[in-house]
Amino acid sequence: MEQTLSIIKPDAVAKNVIGKIVDRFETNGLKIAAMKRVQLSAADAGAFYAVHAQRPFFGELVEFMTSGPVVVMVLEGENALSKNRELMGATNPKEAEAGTIRADFAESIDANAVHGSDSLENAKIEINFFFCGREIA
Ligand code: CMP
Question: In terms of CB atoms within 10 Å, which of 6, 7, 93, 137 comes out highest?
């Protein structure tokens, strides 16, 4: 049984499609093991995306991720990590396959509706960033 971190980003929260996105996960066999809505500070977003600190888009990424509330979740299930990435579609919504979350709800590579962990090692780090043990059940 795997766990992975999912974030519904400020663009999708502003569009009021939290429920529609959560439904994709549940319909496809993933369990929501933890979930909360949070407003990230610049320090929070910078720390979460520290691996991208040297990338040219880092400033915009932090600005965007703090532009409104996000919903963070722990998704649990068999092959949860790859299943989530499949359901999200490509990072750039213009390249995302039809029927994926990003193809259906995202506008641009910055405002791309959702984030998902890219490896099991990072999933552990990202889950611990947002949740303590008793919040995951
Ligand atoms: P995410 O999966 O949250 O991880 C980092 C984010 O940076 C990514 O989704 C995109 O929203 C954003 N981003 C902006 N520009 C780029 C880029 N050129 N390559 C990758 N990610 C980018």
Answer: 6
Q: Give phi and psi for 38, each to the nearest 5.
A: -140, 150
Catalytic-labelled residue, pool 30, 115, 126, 130: 115
Task: Give dist(CA 102, CA 21) in Å, integer.
Answer: 10
Our mutation pick for probing the ligand 1 site, out of 4, 109, 118, counting the most ligand atoms within 8 A of Cβ, is 109
Q: Which residues line ligand 1 (CB under 6 A)?
A: 52, 57, 61, 91, 109-110, 112, 115
pLDDT of residue 3: 98
* Beta carbons within 8 Å of 106's beta carbon, 6+ residues apart: 11, 12, 93, 96, 112, 113, 114
Q: CA 55 to CA 78: how far, in whole Å?
A: 33
Q: Global pTM?
A: 0.98
Sheet with strand 2-8: strands edge to edge: 31-38, 70-77, 2-8, 114-116
